[in-house]
Design goal:
Layout: H1 3-21, E1 25-28, H2 33-45, E2 54-57, H3 64-76, E3 81-84, H4 87-91, H5 103-120, E4 125-129, E5 134-137, E6 146-148, E7 165-168, E8 196-199, H6 207-217, E9 232-233, E10 246-247, H7 253-261, H8 275-279, H9 285-289
Parallel strand pairs: 1-2, 1-6, 2-3, 6-8
Antiparallel strand pairs: 3-4, 4-5, 7-8, 9-10
Helix pairs in contact: 1-2, 6-7
Length: 293
C-alpha cells in the first residue's frame, strides 16, 4: 500500500465511523481543493452516494466562479446541497471592505457566526431542490451535531492542534487544551449531549498529497487553481476581497504537482494569500476558537 492508498483508506474509515456514530451529520464544502477531495472520498466511502447534507457558508463575497462550480457539481452528483448566510450582517453592511469593520470582524460575522447558526438550525438554511433546479428555504431545523471538515494539520498552525474527532461546546467554541487522546487509531466518538463535534478526515494529508491524489483520481477541481496565462493562480480560495494569487505558471494538475515537488513553495505558507490570516497575527487561532472552519 503506497502513501495515497494509506491516506485514502484512513479517511474513508473516519468518514464511515462518523456516519455510524452521529445521527445529524453534515459535511462542510468550501468549494476548494481540500473539501472537494473530501467530497470525492465520501462518494468512495458510500459507493457513489453521499448520505448526508453538504453545507456551504455563502458570504456573498466568494469568487463568482466558485458558486457556479458549487451548483453545477451539486446538480451533476445529486448532492443534498444546503447553504447558510448571515443576512443581517450583509443587509447592515457589517462587512469588509465596504463596511465599517475590519477583516477579522467580517470573518466572524460572515463565516463564524453564519456557520454557528446555520449548523444549529437557528438561522434559515437554503436547500437545493433538484426538481426545480433552485434553492428554497429548508424546512429541516434540526441542529447538525457532527460536522465533517477538510482541515489539514500542515495548512496552518492552529489546525495542527486538532483531533480527528474534535469537540466544541454548544456555542461552537473550541477549547484547544481539552482535546481527547487518539491513540492507535481509537477515536472518541461518544460525547455529552449538546456537544458539537468537528470531524477531520484529511488531518494527515499534505498539500502535495492532495494534488497527487487529484492527479491520480482525476478529481474535478475548480480551475481557479490554474494559471490562465497571467503568471498567477490561486493556491488557497476564500472571499474575493481577502484572497490573493501566487506567482505561478502551472496551468494544470500535473504542473502543480511538479511545482510542489520542486520545493518552490517550501518556505511560503499555503494560506499566504489569505489576508485575514495576516490580520490574525498569521494564525487563525483567534477565529477558530470561536467557530471558524
Amino acid at each position: 500500500m503506497d502513501q495515497l492508498d494509506y491516506l485514502e483508506a484512513k479517511s474513508v474509515h473516519i468518514l464511515r465511523e462518523a456516519y455510524r456514530d452521529f445521527k445529524n451529520l453534515c459535511m462542510l464544502w468550501s468549494i476548494g481543493k481540500d473539501s472537494t477531495v473530501m467530497l470525492w472520498l465520501a462518494r468512495k466511502a458510500f459507493f457513489g452516494h453521499v448520505p448526508f447534507p453538504l453545507v456551504h457558508i455563502d458570504t456573498s463575497y466568494k469568487i463568482p466562479a466558485m458558486i457556479e462550480y458549487r451548483d453545477r457539481v451539486a446538480k451533476e452528483w445529486k448532492l443534498n446541497m444546503v447553504y447558510g448566510q448571515n443576512t443581517e450582517a450583509l443587509k447592515n453592511k457589517m462587512t469588509f471592505p465596504d463596511g465599517a469593520i475590519d477583516r477579522i470582524a467580517c470573518c466572524k460575522a460572515l463565516k463564524s457566526e453564519a456557520l454557528k447558526h446555520t449548523l444549529s438550525g437557528e438561522w434559515t438554511r437554503w436547500r437545493l431542490n433538484h426538481e426545480k433546479g433552485e434553492y428554497e428555504e429548508d424546512s429541516n431545523k434540526d441542529p447538525y451535531t457532527g460536522v465533517i471538515v477538510g482541515a489539514r494539520a500542515d495548512e496552518e498552525g492552529s489546525r495542527s492542534k486538532e483531533r480527528y474527532f474534535s469537540p466544541r461546546d454548544k456555542q461552537s467554541d473550541w477549547d484547544v487544551d481539552d482535546q481527547p487522546p487518539e491513540l492507535w487509531s481509537y477515536y472518541k466518538t461518544d460525547f455529552a449531549p449538546g456537544t458539537h463535534v468537528r470531524i477531520h478526515p484529511l488531518l494527515d494529508w499534505t498539500e502535495l498529497n492532495l494534488w497527487e491524489y487529484i492527479q491520480r483520481e482525476n478529481v474535478p477541481i475548480i480551475d481557479l487553481y490554474f494559471d490562465k496565462g497571467e503568471g498567477m493562480r490561486y493556491r488557497s480560495l476564500g472571499c474575493l476581497p481577502c484572497t490573493l494569487g501566487v506567482q505561478s505558471t502551472a496551468k494544470n494538475v500535473d504542473e502543480i504537482v511538479e511545482e510542489l515537488r520542486s520545493g518552490k513553495f517550501s518556505n511560503v505558507a499555503e494560506r499566504s494569500g489569505r489576508a485575514q490570516d495576516a490580520a490574525d497575527g498569521n494564525s487563525l487561532e483567534t477565529l477558530r476558537r470561536s467557530g471558524y472552519m
